[in-house]
Design goal:
By secondary structure, the chain is of the alpha/beta class. The protein is about 40% helix and about 20% strand. The strands form 7 sheets. Strands 2-1-6-7-8-9 form a 6-stranded antiparallel sheet. It has a 6-stranded mixed sheet with strand order 10-13-14-3-15-16, with helices on both faces.
Length: about 725
């Protein structure tokens, strides 16, 4: 039996998400506060807990506000005019039809759609067969709906109980002398939401694949179909120092034996063996010491005052299997044999102990598997206390372990190392895309959709498959973007140094409140990243170079040339309104300037902005643009060698001046000549800009505009 898919709607920030499971290990990755723990709470509540407690705070805020704004005026109008008996009747009549809640006054509260698959050749479906709705022999799925439905009668009972309390508060607010009206209105709204949630009834149905034709199923019967176990992110009993006494590993090792027949047989014998040894010793006799005899004499004297019906006080040993098991747990210690020395659990630190603990829990779960049920093992944040290399080794072990043992499971993580290691097929990403709204992105589906597509390089498609490109993209560590609030894509080391420094300036300081992923890309391949950025809905800034013809000796000639930057050209093509794609021509630099001017910021889908050197700077690279800004000159303007030396000294910059043996002091060089000569030392140039504090003074306008755009919410 296999949990294939669960679709969750209207639970906290999860307005609607679909989670597809793999047969083996599925990884749910996302930053903090993205909804990972919320989703795990839903899964535990549905499959594991005896009752899934649904509170008004679990309703998405947008739905709560809509409902309260509709129903509060009804309560106010009725309660200001009528006492309880008449008022309850009028409110119920206003919000109901045919003894049920009117659809206008039902909140679209939490529901989950669940698909369970099976393999006819291997799975025993006798516990599921009553819930089979599709008789097509080619289909092998069961479908369930788990939800909460409002009960009008329960709402009426609760309204009777709380009517006077709510009425009193509404009257208080309507009083012209009322103080803190907003606060008191908030409490009334909260009371109404509690009233609604109090009338919700937990329901479960089996149905067809369209999740229609609902048939009720008793909740205990539904939950019996699943064997779900979960390891929380924080509640793990692990010893870290000598003061720790939890002995988490020791206890878990013993628990592995609870279903072992030879262990059970042995522990059954232990109580009798223990008592026999005690009887052979004088320990039992010593228990009947003088203090007990003295106490017994006192008891007998007191008993005479109440009829003397109290028996003789004795100490007797009564040992059963549970006592023996408790005793074994207390005396058992997990030890590490290191060069002949036995060291305790805490000797290895939390990371190693956590790894062993998780493995033991997995072994325990295997012993509890019931093949007639859906068996799923969840682990929250297995990376806790592990350094990156250990995370990498462990996730590879988990992947193989789940596959080899035929297990199905889900782990949640905010570890870049784990996301990098598992690959796209296993990865599901959950992100907050709007205020109080998270979305889930299935990267296995993303990979299937791009299957067969080619990467874009220079002007044409290459022979490289885009799906392989993204596998490599994650493998080298760029998976960090899935945890990012925003992304900056740049070309080289100098851009990285410069941008990281810029966002610490007061002008851009708000960017420090975001987690920004910095992804180094070449201009030739940057456009390929757009697909995953669009998929994950991450606001992204691409900073790249215009790269027009370097041999152009005047600006007018440069404007008639074309850019060799494939990403810029691909953006232009994507934004082109050309009705006949075959008629499209690669734009000139003049046309790219026009695009900049027309759009202010070149943005695709309100999500991805590309910025490059503008017409004002006349530059083709970052370094040219920075020097042009410093000198307030175009890149073709020439200065004498002596002037360049003065500029270098006065501004504490590191750049090279071309050698020219003839008329050395009178030789003239343009900004482009200086940058070309400094080509092998661009990093030194950027360090000198930063260390001399010139980063803002030399900030090109195109980068400033791009970062200001990125700051916008």
């Amino acid at each position: 039996m296999f949990l294939k898919r669960i679709e969750v709607s209207n639970y906290r920030q999860l307005s609607h998400i679909e989670l597809n499971f793999q047969n083996g290990l599925t990884v749910l990755a996302g930053p903090n506060n993205s909804g990972k723990t919320t989703l795990i709470s839903v899964l535990k509540g549905i499959f594991n807990e005896s009752k899934f407690v649904f509170k008004y705070s679990d309703i998405p805020t947008g739905l709560s506000v809509l409902w309260v704004n509709k129903i509060l005026p009804i309560f106010s109008d009725v309660m200001l005019e009528h006492a309880k008996e008449e008022g309850v009747s009028q409110i119920i009549n206003a919000i109901s039809a045919d003894n049920e809640f009117s659809s206008d006054y039902i909140i679209d509260t939490f529901n989950a759609k669940i698909e369970v698959d099976y393999t006819p050749e291997n799975d025993d479906i006798q516990d599921f067969v009553d819930y089979l709705m599709d008789l097509d022999e080619t289909k092998h799925s069961f479908y369930f709906v788990y939800t909460y439905e409002p009960s009008l009668s329960a709402f009426e009972r609760m309204l009777n109980d709380r009517y006077d309390k709510i009425k009193s508060r509404i009257e208080d607010i309507e009083n012209p002398d009322c103080k803190e009206k907003d606060t008191k209105t908030y409490f009334i709204k909260e009371e109404l939401l509690k009233l609604y949630c109090g009338c919700l009834i937990e329901k479960c149905y089996y149905c067809n694949e369209e999740y229609k034709n609902l048939n009720s199923i008793e909740l205990p019967n539904f939950k019996k179909l699943f064997n779900l176990e979960n390891i929380d992110a924080v509640r793990r009993d692990l010893d870290d120092n000598e003061k720790d006494v939890s002995k988490g590993i020791s206890k878990r090792v013993i628990s592995l034996l609870k279903n072992d027949e030879s262990w059970i047989a042995t522990t059954k014998k232990l109580p009798d063996m223990l008592l026999e040894q005690i009887d052979k010793s004088d320990a039992k006799a010593k228990m009947q010491n003088s203090s007990i005899k003295s106490l017994d004499t006192t008891i007998q004297d007191v008993a005479k005052t109440s009829g003397g019906h109290i028996g003789k006080l004795l100490l007797e040993m009564d040992v059963d299997e549970d006592d023996v098991n408790d005793f074994i747990k207390k005396i058992t210690r997990a030890k590490y044999d290191i060069d002949g020395l036995l060291l305790n659990e805490n000797s290895q630190g939390l990371g190693f102990s956590n790894l062993i603990y998780l493995h033991i829990r997995l072994e325990e779960f295997i012993s509890s598997i019931d093949k007639k049920k859906v068996n799923v093992f969840f682990i929250e944040e297995p990376e806790a206390h592990m350094h990156p290399q250990m995370q990498n080794v462990f996730i590879r072990f988990l992947n193989k372990y789940y596959t080899d043992k035929g297990l199905q499971g889900l782990i949640t993580t905010h570890s870049n190392e784990i996301a990098r290691s598992v690959g796209l097929n296993s990865l599901r990403v959950i992100r907050q895309t709007e205020k109080s709204k998270s979305e889930l992105f299935d990267l296995s589906e993303f990979k299937r959709k791009i299957e067969g597509q080619k990467t874009i390089c220079a002007e044409n498609e290459t022979d490289y498959l885009l799906e392989n490109f993204f596998d490599w993209f994650f493998e080298i560590g760029y998976s960090e973007l899935i945890f990012a609030d925003k992304v900056v894509l740049y070309e080289g080391d100098t851009e990285r140094l410069y941008i990281r420094k810029l966002i610490n300036l007061p002008t851009f300081s708000s960017l420090n409140n975001n987690y920004i992923a910095f992804i180094q890309v070449g201009g030739a391949y940057a456009f390929n990243y757009l697909k995953i950025l669009e998929k994950l809905k991450i606001k992204s800034l691409i900073i790249t170079d215009l790269d027009y013809d370097i041999s152009a000796i005047t600006f007018e000639v440069a404007k008639e040339s074309k850019s060799t930057n494939a990403t810029i050209n691909a953006f232009h093509k994507a934004l082109s309104r050309e009705s006949k794609p075959e008629a499209y021509q690669t734009p000139t630099i003049k046309e790219l300037y026009a695009l900049q001017s027309a759009m202010d910021n070149i943005v695709m889908d309100d999500l991805i902005c590309i910025t490059y050197q503008d017409e004002e700077s006349t530059a083709r690279t970052l370094e040219e643009a920075m020097l042009a800004k410093l000198l307030n000159k175009d890149v073709f303007h020439t200065l004498k060698r002596s002037d360049w030396k003065t500029i270098r000294k006065d501004n504490k910059l590191s750049f090279s001046i071309p050698n020219n043996r003839v008329d050395e002091d009178d030789s003239e060089f343009s900004i482009r000549d200086i940058v070309k000569s400094t080509k092998g030392n661009k990093t030194d140039f950027m360090y000198s800009v930063i260390l001399s504090g010139q980063e803002e003074k030399m900030l090109p306008q195109y980068i400033k505009k791009g970062l200001l755009w990125l700051m916008q919410q």
